[in-house]
Amino acid sequence: MTHDSGSFLTRVNPSVKLTAHLLIMMFLMTIGDPGTSALLWLLSLIIGVALGGWTWQYIKRRILPYLGFFVLVFWMLAAFGKGEAVLWQFAWFRITEEGVYHGLVIAFRMLGFVTYGLLFTSTTDTTQLVMSLIQQYKLSPKWGYGLMAGMRFIPLFESELKQMKAAHKIRGFHTQGKLKAFARYTLPLFAQGIRKAERVAVAMEARGFNGSRKRTYYHTPIVANLDYLYCTFLFLAVLVITFSSYLFGWFTWVWDS
Amino acid sequence: MNWKMREIVLAVVLSIACGVLYLGWSTLWLPISALVGPVGAEFMFGVWVVASPLVAFIVRKPGAALIAEVAAAAVEVFTGSHFGLSSLLIGILQGLGAEIAFFMFRYKKYSVPVLMLSGVLAAIGSMVYSLLANGFAYYTTGVLLATFGLRVISGAILGGLLAKIIAESLAKTGILSSYEMMKQRRHHGGDPYDSASGV
């Protein structure tokens, strides 16, 4: 699912990138003010443009639609959050100052999650990710290759779902509700999956795959200087942002807000 | 704790099938939540934790519940979704919750109450994520309790009970005969297809 194979971020080790981004997301969870959260979100956008090869077209298509999501999250907390200082009351909605403040924190945090997540998925090849998990995180090859075999099933399952819908339609079968239709497609999907899984496992073993660590690899991702460079830059940038927001008097931990 | 290759591939493929269903379920969830509000739509939550009890019930090995939910969440990473990394974090917490249920019974009991308990604990795991990441602590106590209650009930029914129903229906087709669930049944004798469940 790589977006631009030439960008700096596509060359960063997938395990390193995954760990670094998850750490930033966990750090975002500890921040309780909208200013810092917004700045950390902006950082992910800047990294995307500078190191991830994101173009304006890409941002317009993949990130701007999430501003609607931003509004939804904000509205949920603003209208249903707890607080004393009521700004506006209408029917069962009770908008408070605290609700608006918390709404902004969480909405920027969600945007941050979306862009740091996209920063990872748009610049990581999934096969490389699994190979790197085998090398860097010592994932057993049994599970690694099992996972890669499973990955191939995703498009298959998606097209099978479509096919089943079409097959029902052409035979003039109409379900009463969407929920019932959903149940009708589930079992054939699972049954097909189990049959295919069995065949894949047999095929792997028939070709001598025994899942031991003593084997050769076509790709062996390593952790190189580039990875240290990216992590240093990322964590330093987060530190600078956090410290400046502290100087502005914005910074609040989530447990203090 | 020695997994056979066929069990690994089965666990991964079933979890990934669940992951693909989760994506479809999300598109169903959106219009419903727009209609009745996110709290009202919580009744749909359980389907998102079905992978853990389903895979654990069939494979019956330590770690199966955790691996299943993480692998199902990984579908969002593999398809390059925006929610890839967030769903990975949720998957880990839900999977851990579901795993605890089977651990509590030393991986020996796979009855309906245990499966439902795993759905409930998975729901609690997801609540932990919602509190930490989605700011659920900022909601009024009433909204929070309603969300939590609906999620737990839905986790037990649409997660645990549904997993049992799916597994029994699959067992009837005979494709599960070489897996632990059916092996144990043959070992204990009696009707291997559990016609009492009447699905």
TrEMBL record, chain A:
Classification via InterPro entries: ABC/ECF_trnsptr_transmembrane, ECF_transporter_component
Signal peptide range: none
Family annotation (Pfam families): CbiQ
A single GO cellular-component term on record: plasma membrane
Compartments where located: Membrane
Its membrane topology: Multi-pass membrane protein
Transmembrane feature ranges: 38-56, 63-80, 100-121, 228-251
Keywords annotated in UniProt: Cell membrane, Membrane, Transmembrane, Transmembrane helix
Highest taxon listed in the record's lineage: Bacteria
Xref: CDD domains: EcfT
Name this polypeptide is given: Energy-coupling factor transport system permease protein
Lineage summary: Bacteria, Bacillati, Bacillota, Bacilli, Bacillales
UniProtKB/TrEMBL annotation, chain B:
Keyword Membrane applies: yes
UniProt xrefs under InterPro entries: ABC_thiamin-permease_prd
Pfam families the record matches: ABC_cobalt
TM regions (residue ranges): 7-25, 31-51, 112-132, 138-163
Protein name per the record: ECF transporter S component
Domain of life: Bacteria
The keyword Coiled coil is annotated on this UniProt entry: no
UniProt source species: Aneurinibacillus thermoaerophilus
Keywords: Membrane, Transmembrane, Transmembrane helix
